[in-house]
Design goal:
Aminopeptidase, 7 strands, alpha+beta, seven-stranded mixed β-sheet, 5 helices, single chain, 2 domains
Length: about 180
């Protein structure tokens, strides 16, 4: 296994990445990439020069996972978007390795912080289907994971919850905002 920068010349891997976005987000994130064409558009946007698009591949050039990033705030902050691992390979360390590699890519570009949003569209946490505007900080502090929401993965990687976007995906469906400083 190795992690590479995905380029416009990698047509086979680009197609694998587009399908991966559909497959990896199918179960819990219906509003994400629902078709191959949606995934392909996202991957092609990530291939622009000012973005990061990294892929973990096996020895046979099969895509195991991918991660992307978008520069913001004059390169001081990078948004991690998206992270996807083949569904049958999740919880095997691939996502962790991709995030660690992404952190190094951001550092090499002079980035200070990585941010991300982790939607809760399916009542996976205690932050969904509640009035976020009442006792917001207590709700964030006492967040509970009901159905394997990925915010805990990011916490294990050193990210902290920095805020919530209430109703980002409809009434009672927030986006959980997280960040991690990566500068040394």
């Amino acid at each position: 296994m190795k992690i590479i920068t995905l380029t416009k010349a990698d047509e086979n891997l680009i197609n694998q990445a587009a399908q991966l976005l559909v497959d990896a987000f199918r179960e819990h994130w219906q509003e994400s990439w629902t078709t191959f064409e949606d995934g392909l558009q996202e991957v092609n946007e990530l291939l622009e020069a000012e973005h990061i698009c990294r892929a973990m591949i096996d020895d046979d050039n099969n895509l195991l996972g991918m991660i992307g990033g978008i520069s913001q705030y004059d390169g001081n902050v990078w948004e991690l978007h998206p992270l996807a691992v083949q569904p049958h390979l999740q919880k095997k360390g691939i996502g962790q390795k991709l995030v660690q590699d992404f952190e190094e890519q951001v550092r090499q570009r002079g980035g200070l912080t990585i941010i991300l949003g982790s939607d809760d569209e399916d009542n996976m946490t205690s932050l969904s289907d509640v009035n976020i505007y009442e006792n917001l900080y207590d709700k964030i502090k006492n967040i509970q994971n009901y159905k394997g929401h990925p915010f805990e993965f990011y916490q294990k990687m050193g990210f902290i919850i920095t805020g919530i976007v209430p109703d980002a995906n409809g009434i009672g469906k927030p986006d959980i905002l997280m960040a991690k400083r990566v500068s040394r």
